Predict the 3D structure of the following.
Amino acid sequence: MSANGLFREQPDGSWQHFGQADTTLTGFAIAAGDPNILYAAGLNGCWRSLDGGKSWQINTGWAITDGRDVAADPHAPGHVYFAYVDGLAFSSDHGRTWAKRETGIPSQANYIATVEVDRTTASRVLIGGERGIYLTTNAGRLWEPVLATSATVNDLQQSPHDPQEWLAVTDADGAWSSRDGGRTWVRLTGVPHPGPLYNLSFDPTNPQRRVIGGWAHGALVSEDGGASWTARNAGLPQPALVWRVGVHPRTGRLYASVSGKTLYRSDDFGRTWSADRLEGARVNAFITLPRSAPAAR
């Protein structure tokens, strides 16, 4: 079985490969209202599928490549945001055509690593990159800075429980929290820094649980709403070079992709770990499909 591209978790726990066998995929999104329209961020641009992943095409063109992340607006059908190493691109027609939308983003901050759409408000989007976090309320026509960092923001996520809560992690400037929809941010004092933090995830089944993954500290978990954090790496290969973490939306199972090894899983939120499948693969993103479709990552 190919270890490249997209994999869908099956009811029996196995992983089914679908889509392009592309080793460079770093982000994935699903169109609002139509689970057959899929997007994937890759080295050559934004892949798009109109048939649920059976066939794929890139429409971004030569000027928009080296993708890092992609997001679709659940309240604005057709609106897609593509983060890449040289800026932010926007499509209003389900990824058929693209244009740059970078007004307000300084040229020295145009490496964009992560993009997330506010699930409660159409056209409200946050991006993270090499100089911090930027916010737009008008679908990217104008961006404003909301957090300046000394290191690249690698990931930012909105809580599935409280839409006003956001978290962000950086390469060397720690982890940050917002309780007002991403307008203002404070550093999480319980998360050690410096040290690279690569991604984060909320537990959809438990509003008190969060997890951060990184090479410096492995899997860092909180079970008190982010007030305190603990490294839980017993059972992972040492050193625990955790590249990505994710949480199953229905069971709360914790996943950790360990660089150069395989995918690991934990049913007690990191207290013990066991090896899953995908030997040798490095998972770049964990994504949950709508309930009408099988769970996927």
User: Anything to note?
Assistant: The first strand starts at residue 6 and ends at 9. The chain has one domain: 6-275.
